[in-house]
Amino acid sequence: MGGITMSSVLFDVPGPRARARHRVIGVITALLLLAVVAWAIWRLYENNQFAYEKWEPFVTPAIVRDLWDGLLITLQIAAVSIVFANIFGMLFAVGRLSDHWLISWPCFVVVEFFRAVPVLMMVFFFSIKYASEIGKFWVITIPLILYNGSVLAEVFRAGILAVPKGQREAGSSIGLRKYQLMTIILIPQAVAAMLPAIISQCVVALKDSALAFVIPYEEIVSVGNRIRNEFHNSFATAIVLAVVFIIINYSLSRLAIWVERRVARRGRTAVKHPPTVPGVGVGDESMPG
Amino acid sequence: MDVLFEEWRQIVDGFWETVQLLVLSGLIATVIGTLLAAMRVAPVRMMNAIGTSYVNVFRNTPLVVLFILVVFGLPELDIQYTFFEKAIIALSVYTAAFVCEAVRSGINTVAAGQAEAARSIGMTFTQTLGRVVLPQAFRAVVPPLASVYIALTKNTSVAAGFGVTEATATLSALLNNDPQAAFALFFGIGLGYVLIVAVISTGSHLLERRWAASR
Fold it and tell me: How far is B184 from chain A (nearest CA, A)?
């Protein structure tokens, strides 16, 4: 991203012969793709995957309603976990930047641990140990808060560190205290620069909410899993679930890119190039969750 | 704590399975992902479209849904593999999308002059990419690629829900046997993951430092 796009530098502006060659390669690629698609369709047809009863559940009102309710719960899990993850992330980012090692060290350990441990492991832990006390919603949501919060802690920390030194110095020189510096000068600018990364993290939370299927809960993937077991249409169900997630997540990614451009254009922050944090990326380059 | 020592054999076996999933799907994903990245920057429209669609589809699908498709969907199409093989397929296909994006961002960091110089001495697109741009891109790509492998390490745990007894499945089994020891098990096995992640990020730092000199 940014600067000259490499793809235009990698090759000359094609002349007539190159254009003809590219067209031939394009046609061959298209034919290969067509062959793969045709093979897949044939394979699906052979195995009766286009039969009406495989897809019937997805036009049955009662089941569509179940899926819709499941989707709402999925969105709820993602929304709640992102809100709390932001609070968690902010606290631990500031904690890690503390001058007192008694504060910064525990924050470092917590953030690094929950960034390295699989979310599914936490889900198993909470589901076996605490399911009866906290309920299934929190069995999936707490792990998502801990994981996304730790990732966001690193995002915020990088954002705070990326605010130009002059801002901090200017604040100090007019007599602001450390916490005033943090809350008035640094955090607002860091958040503006990090907004796209926060939106990208929503995509991660939405995808990871699917891990609730091991509990199982009532979000859309657990609902899908029930449908699949009842109607023996795993292939069809997986495709439907995938399409739903792709539509939502693709829109969110576009939103992140749009916000990124807007923040850059309106100059809401002194941070010129939001730093990239290992494990997270901005908009276009988000990392697997 | 005792449970960790009593069950060490089972835990080590679990992590061995995790490492196998990580290495095999990491290798396959790197190959597919690099090819996809080349397609995304190629001068042929059709290839760009395929690369872009692949990334948008698999980056936005939950890994669990992909696992459902591969583990339960493929047998419906009469395509039979073991659980382990199917886990490798799902993880590779998913991770390839992220490798593609990491490599593509690496290609974008190579100075434009490098590619221009290569072209000015008459190199073709394939030569420019293969001999000049990609070798340099792989250096710039070490940190983001390391992040992809770290994410993959954690993602191998999803296989626990689909019949592969790797480390997380081992944790789940041990937790069910002995809920009293939940904390020891959770932090003990968690540390195993922390260790794998630490190895990957240390390796990435070493490579970065070593290659940084030659630029």
Answer: 11
How many C-beta atoms surround the C-beta of residue A174 within 10 A? 7
With CA atoms as reference, the chain B residue closest to A47 would be B77
Domains, chain B, in order of start with CATH, read 2-212 (1.10.3720.10)
pLDDT (tens place) for every residue of chain B, 215 residues total: 678 888 889 999 999 999 999 999 999 999 999 999 989 988 888 999 999 999 999 999 999 999 999 999 999 998 899 999 999 999 999 999 999 999 888 877 887 788 888 888 888 888 888 888 878 877 888 888 999 999 999 999 999 999 999 999 999 999 999 888 899 999 999 999 999 999 999 999 998 888 765 55
In the stretch 177-196 of chain B, residues with CB closer than 8 A to chain A read 179, 182, 186, 189-190, 193-194
Q: How many domains does chain A have?
A: 1
What's the rounded Cα separation, in Å, for the pair B97 and B130? 20
Taking a C-beta distance cutoff of 8 angstroms, is the pair B71, B163 a contact? yes
In a domain, residue A159? The reply is yes
Contact state of B158 with A211 under an 8 Å Cβ cutoff: yes
Residue A89 included in any domain: yes
> Is the minimum CB–CB distance between B164 and chain A shorter than 8 Å?
no
pTM over 0.90: no
Residue A121 contacts B, CB cutoff 8 Å: yes
User: Is residue B203 within a helix (H) or strand (E), and if so which, with residue range?
Assistant: helix B182-212
pLDDT-based confidence at residue A97 (cuts at 50, 70, 90): very high
**Structure confidence at residue A18 (pLDDT):** 84
| Residues A228, B68: C-beta atoms closer than 8 Å | yes
- Report the CATH number at residue A108: 1.10.3720.10
Q: Which ipTM did the prediction report?
A: 0.89
| Contact between A235 and B46 using a beta-carbon 8 Å cutoff | no
User: Under a CB-based contact definition with an 8 Å cutoff, are residues B163 and B17 in contact?
Assistant: no
Q: Collect all residues with Cβ–Cβ distance below 8 Å to B149 and sequence separation of at least 6.
A: B22, B26, B200
B65 vs A12: CB contact, 8 Å cut-off? no
Residue A147 falls inside a structural domain: yes
Phi/psi class of residue B80: alpha, beta or left (left: φ > 0; alpha: ψ in -120 to 50)? beta
Chain A and chain B share a number of CB contacts under 8 A equal to 219
Pair A144, A209: CB distance under 8 Å: yes
Q: Which domain holds residue A132?
A: 70-285
B211 touches chain A (CB under 8 A): no
Is residue A177 in some structural domain? yes
Could you give the 3-state DSSP secondary structure of residue A280? strand
